[in-house]
Amino acid sequence: MRFPFLKSFVLLAGVLAGGGFSMSIAAAQTSSPTTASGHADHLLADDHSWNGTPYEHYPTTRPMLSMIRLTIPAHSALPWHVHPYPNAGYVLEGTLTIEDRQSGKKRTFHQGEAFAESVNDVHRGVTGDSQTVLLLTYAGSPGKPTSIPLPGQQKEY
């Protein structure tokens, strides 16, 4: 507190005024926070990826969760790649069109939308007229990559 005498003055004023004021200050300083539940916006709950491929299992090794914020420039396509583990994405900014190389399926996700990524399906993300910022969460294993580029392709990140 910048003026230590101020607390003493407030307490003294409360005592002189009948004690009610100092009691409320003392009570406020010793009370516990109210227990309350948080509000959850459920963004995604899927047992299959955006292209309809079901998830089969989690890794049998020790799990490792990881989360990255990925920024992709406007008018860009990520290299073709696969993910060996289940993962989910959330579009913080911009849009992302995910393309499945084998089936040709495409789906566009906009700011505020979540998506379940494919496992072991070759795909890439393509941005629109502005940069895209994603929050990506992976359920992987320690020391193993979360994204694997196809031969001859750059890394996704």
From TrEMBL:
Keyword Signal in annotation: yes
SUPFAM superfamilies the record matches: RmlC-like cupins
Keyword field contains Ion transport: no
Keyword tags: Signal
Cupin type-2 domain sequence ranges: 70-135
UniProt cross-references to InterPro entries, sorted A to Z: Cupin_2, RmlC-like_jellyroll, RmlC_Cupin_sf
Highest rank taxon of the organism: Bacteria
Signal peptide (UniProt feature, chain positions): 1-28
This protein's name: Cupin type-2 domain-containing protein
Organism (species): Gluconobacter albidus
Classification of source organism: Bacteria, Pseudomonadati, Pseudomonadota, Alphaproteobacteria, Acetobacterales
